[in-house]
Design a protein that fits this description.
- It contains 15 helices and 24 strands.
- The chain is an alpha/beta fold and 479 residues long.
- Helix 7 links the parallel strand 11 and strand 12.
Length: 479
Amino acid sequence: MISCCGNGGHEKVAGTLIIIGGGSAAFSAATRAVELGAEKVTIINDGLPTGGTCVNVGCVPSKTLIRASESLHRAKHNPFAGIQTGGGLADFSAVVEQKRQLVTELRQAKYVDVIRDLAQVRLVKGHAKLLDAHSVQIGDMRLSADHLLIATGATAAIPNIPGLSEAGYLTNESAFELETLPESLIVLGGRYIALECAQMFARFGSRVTVLQRSERILPAESEDITNALTGYLAEEGLEILTGVALQQVRRVKQGVVVTAKINGEKREFAAAQVLVATGRTPNTRNMGLEHAGVLLDEHGYIQVSPTLQTTLPDVWAAGDVLGKNMFVYTAAYEGALAAENAFTKADRVTDYTALPWVIFTDPQVAGVGMDERQAVAAGHDAEAATLPLSYVPRAIAARDTRGMIKLIRDKKTDLLLGARILAPEGSELLMELAMAIKFSITVTQLRNSFHPYLTLGEGVKLAAITFGKNVAQLSCCAT
């Protein structure tokens, strides 16, 4: 049944939708499908509770615990003269319980309540297997629909290290549920989940050792960013070792021992617990995807077209199960886009040109667009300008000048190509830069725009000025 309705010139196609998965991509797709006239939407969820990774074991619990540990750290480290402060961890389990309450509240408000009053949407508990392009099996029940969306997400990837499974380990799911703070912790990995968790536990009081396989933490980022962040984390007492070849993990009476080789030298590291944060793996096993004709890559992630269509015409995929841009906001974007393409035949393609991202360490690492290497590889006559935070009045007044603001532009067009930021609350600078990239605002236009004095945002203006002037020679608010 086809009815003509206003939707950017595209027809709305009435029909039914089955969604496998219960996270942000799934709920975004469900609500958008209803808006577009779907007759029935069935969400099939298994594994994590309703809401998926973000609200249950990812964004929400990690960021509230990170902020709690930051509050404790700030209380212990006051940079201002004449002010006496102090802090201590009185009850770690109370911090975790407060986190649980927030998770429960947001799960209810942002997921359960969202579909409660949508008569077209029903939620089914169970593990779905794909039978063909229009049918799934859940236990003894078979369901069919005009369109299928796979949004099953991803979970922690567990490396094949001898003894690891027998010794036991934490992942982001179990680490955020600990009732007792571990006295010591070994973190395997050196990317965003590993570093966020490592600093958080260290600030709560754990003795933390980070073991990273590559030669640098955050190896995809430039050395100036990663070297600076490594230094800041080390100043807080974290031990960060890179170039590590993990060999064995074994359980001992006091906890765990990790054996590794660093520069050819065998070393052992002991701690109460070990946290595995070595990447993600897709939730695509035992779903009958390949048998039904859905193409997966060598890591098990679903392959899709730019319109998010799989190799089956009426089967779509969205979110972390794609293995790229694994953020909750991109998952929501993809879920809605897939629903639009299914129900309007709009054939809209994904666009990640101005996609901002954040690593919630302190200082935060944030970025949008291309870095210098990517810009050059893309054929641009690229130029970078880096402004240390020691030149930003807000940072000076706050007595916290850790970090830098780096802008990358095309020298011929003056267009902003990307930005990288290392700064306390540096993520708050991203949207101005993302909008500049999205709407082709030049660096000169950024430089000539008003930025209030003594805001961190003024650093963007100063970084733009740095392309042509020495900011050390500028007077207050000068351009």
